[in-house]
Each structure stands twice: as structure tokens, then as C-alpha cells.
Amino acid sequence: MEIIREISILRARIKEARSQGKLVGFVPTMGCLHKGHLALLDKARAENGLTILSIFVNPLQFGIGEDYEEYPRHLESDAVQVKKAGGHIIFAPTVKEMYPQGHATYVDVERLTAVLCGASRPHHFRGVTTVVAKLFNIVNPDQAYFGQKDAQQALVIQRMVRDLNMNVLVHIIPTVREADGLAMSSRNSYLSPAERSAASILYKSLSQASEEIQGGQRDAAVIQAFIVEKISLELLANIDYVAVVDTEEIRPVKEISGRTLIALAVRFGKTRLIDNIIVEV
Amino acid sequence: MEIIREISILRARIKEARSQGKLVGFVPTMGCLHKGHLALLDKARAENGLTILSIFVNPLQFGIGEDYEEYPRHLESDAVQVKKAGGHIIFAPTVKEMYPQGHATYVDVERLTAVLCGASRPHHFRGVTTVVAKLFNIVNPDQAYFGQKDAQQALVIQRMVRDLNMNVLVHIIPTVREADGLAMSSRNSYLSPAERSAASILYKSLSQASEEIQGGQRDAAVIQAFIVEKISLELLANIDYVAVVDTEEIRPVKEISGRTLIALAVRFGKTRLIDNIIVEV
Questions:
Q1: Nearest chain B alpha carbon to A168
Q2: With contacts defined as CB-CB under 8 Å, which chain B residues touch A164?
């Protein structure tokens, strides 16, 4: 396992692996790896000859007053995990390597980024799509792996790949959860013990909503209100949004039919957590 | 020489050529080919094993009320020229092939696109960078060829390639001119005989400005006023802009030093023509 910080060196390694006929699998992350990331890495390892995981806390996707500075950075322990999991390369560029002076180019996915998390984080997805487009051009992977936990991000990246004819197969991997159902997230480390305990309400409410739908409920407004009510019982929870949307244009649906995303963002103290389920009826 | 309309077929052809170790050269155009385009094609032919020229009148780069509908389309005579020049493939996709329903993704180069042509054509460069990003991802060329006539476009595309780490070498090829100096352009066909004759003032004024600079003039405002005055003597000419700018950020300069772009856009009747020179002092 090798840690590479420069684009030119990474490109040389990838060229070498390609000349040996290897497929290139890519897992872009912001580091502080948890079991969710490792599930992506395992899949990439199983399906490719060369597995690259990037660790880059991307300033472009943080808003003013967000947690760019505090975001946890643990390259050493991350490297131990990647090595143990059989990853071949960690690409950990500096901000200057990724955004040299004069950077002026941005990739924007419209419509899909104006809602849900995009509504409260206006430039977030532009930062995500720009850095992912750059990383895809640097790594030129055959396959890339993202987590379902960031459901809107997954849909936005899939749309970017389709719209810009990027030659990469994007895989979305199921959310990995703690024993009580809380979705794995690097931001869980921000939670106080009381907040951590309260946060289990997110997946509980989604699971109960799923049961309501299995039981025949199809009215999106009823399901949304059901989740809002459950979460509101938790005093430490502060709802940003609960939304029932389609999985193409991320538009609110009235009736639940076909593939439907139920997504939420909730604050516990200063920490904003997201979670979601996809139901198919 | 083959005309291909579908992305998947083009990709298969390119894959085949690559497996034979051929370099891929790419010339993106809107068709209605003239000697300027053929100069790009010749260079691409000389430097690559497979030469692809795309013909696509890109609706995204035309504003409301601009000439998208009237823009000349002559695929048959274009094909004769490409064949004669030894090009291997014309890629001529439909609008639907390039922008299937639901298209939402745009590539934006900020700052550099807010000035000169970008000031009077607000979404033009966003359309250019989006379609070129798409075409680059479809063709995956080793080298791509653009004309110096569209100076701002050339700088914007070079910046996009650098900022997004696109793996393509961009070549900018000198402007090809008519006997009287008028830059070759598909839009020259819009000109009435009187306008055509008057349009030679553009390159004349640029050439005379260049002589002034060779003669020692370094004041950008003086050079700009000099060109404006020359062109204003031509009654059919209606100046959009005359600008003296640096070739990195396309910012107006006070003093001419190093590499400097002198660019202009002038209307003759309904037809908007552009031209430019680069001086190095």
C-alpha cells in the first residue's frame, strides 16, 4: 500500500497497472474512514486489479461557517485500515495540488442540487461534482464506488456521469449501520453521548415508515408527517428536512409508487446528520 | 472516411484504433468547413493515427435571438472536404444524442467568460465548455485542435482542461485569413458584398496596431483608441468591443508587456465578427 500526494506520480502508477491489463477501481473519500468506506473498498477490491482510495477534505464543498476546519483528519489510522483491507493506493493530495492558483472551473448539476441538502447547503454539490470530475479525470477509473448514505450525492454524481458522457461505471453501495441503526458517518464523532443515543431515532423512524408503506400506505404527505412526528418526539433532534421524492429528478411525489427515496437531514446540537431509505412498491 | 452519428459506435471505432496503438486527434467544429478548419484537420492528421472531426451545431452555446436556426449546415460538402483532407471520421450526432431528456449538467469557467464575448453573450461559453467536456469524454482524444480566431474560447478551453485535469493536449492553430486579411469564419457567408468588403477593416486595424506596438507604443488605452478610431471610419461597422488583455485571466492591461491579446468583436449589419492578434513585446 502506497500513499501518493502528487497527480503526476499517481498517473504514472495507474498507467503502469493499465499496461498490465488491470481494471482500476476508485473510492473517493474525505478520510476518517469507517465501516461504510470499507464496504466500498471491499467491493472495489473484489472487482478491480488496482484499487485506489482518495482522501481529500475538499474545501469547495463546505460552506461558510460549516465544519471544514474541524472535519476529522486521521491519515495514519486511515492508512492502516486501507492496507488491512487490501487497497493498493491512497491518493491524498494537498489543496494546492488540487486547486492551484487561478482555478476557475466548476461542474454544476442543476435542478437535482437545488433541493434537500442543496437547499440548506447552496454550493455544496457544486463542490462535490467539481472535485469528483477532477478525480475521475486524474484516476480515469473503470469503476467508482459511492455510499447510499449520501443519497442525493449519489443521484447527482450519476447524473453528471451520464450528462457529461464520463466513461466510468458508478456503483452505489448500501449504507452500513451501527447496531442501533445509525448510519456510519465521520460526523458521528461530533455527537455527545446524549446526542449519539438520540440519533438512533433517524433510522428507527425511516424503518417504521417503510413498514407503514409495506402495510399499504401510499400517501407521501402522510409518510412524511409520520416521520416528522416520530423525530419530533426526540427533544435533541432539530429537523432540517424530511422528503419523499422520486429517484430521477429528486422531486417531491404525492403518491408513493415505483422507486421512491425517503431522505432526511436532522441536527443534533451543531451536528447535521443525514439518512435515507429507498422503497420500491 | 466514415460519418458516425451515435456515441456508442464512435466509441467502438476509437477503442479499435487505440488497440492498434494509434493516437487519437480531435477537431471539434460546428461544420460549414472552411480553410481555417482544414488547417486544424491537417495538423491533427499529421500528428495522430486516427483523426476525428465533429460537426455539431450546439444549441447550448447560442443565446435567445442568436443565429442557431440560420447557422449554415452543409454536411455533404463538409464530408467531401474531410475525405479529401484525409480525415478518418466525422462525428455528427443529433441534438437528442448529445442532450437526451433530463440533461442538467454544465461546465462553467468563471471570470474568463464574463468579459469580451462573454459580456454580450452571457451563456455562450458555458455552452462551449459543456459540449467540449462532453466531446472530450466521448472521444477521449490524445490531442485536440482549436483555432486562434476564437481567442477567448481557446483560453477558456485551456483553462477548463487544466482546472479539471483533463488528459488531453490542446493545440491552438493560427488564424487562416482571406487575401484581404479577413479571418475565415462560417459567419462570413452572412455578409452582403458591401459588408464583406468593409469587414477587411478588422484585420487592417489590428495589423496597424501591431505596427504601432512594434514602433514602441506600450499604452494599451492608446492602442485601443487607435483601433476604435480606424474601425469607426468604416460606416458599416458597429463595434461591440475592442480590448487589450492579458492571456491568462483575460483582464484589461494598462501597459502592453509580455504576451498580450488584442481582441475585437464588430457587427456588420446583423453579422457579428470577431478577430484578434497576440503581440509579444
A1: B137
A2: 105, 107, 130, 133-134, 137
Q: For residues A118 and A29, is the Cβ–Cβ distance under 8 A?
A: no
At which of B139, B173, B207 does a domain end?
B173
Q: What angle do CA B84, B86, B89 make, to 5 degrees?
A: 105
Neighbours of B235 (CB within 10 A): 8
Domain residue limits at A210: 186-276
What residue in A sits closest to B161 (Cα-Cα)? A105
Mutation target among A9, A24, A99, A105 for the B interface, most CBs of B within 10 A? A105
* Residue A10 to chain B, least CA–CA distance (Å): 13
Centre a 10 Å sphere on the Cβ of residue A214 and count the other Cβ atoms it contains: 10
Is the same domain home to A53 and A118? yes
ipTM of the complex: 0.96
pLDDT digits (tens, 9 = 90+) for A110-158: 999 999 999 999 999 999 999 999 999 999 999 999 999 999 999 999 9
Predicted TM-score (pTM) of the model is 0.97
Mean pLDDT across the stretch B164-177?
98
Side chain identity at B109, as an amino acid letter?
A: V
| Closest chain A C-alpha to B126 CA, distance in angstroms | 10
Residue B160 domain flag: yes
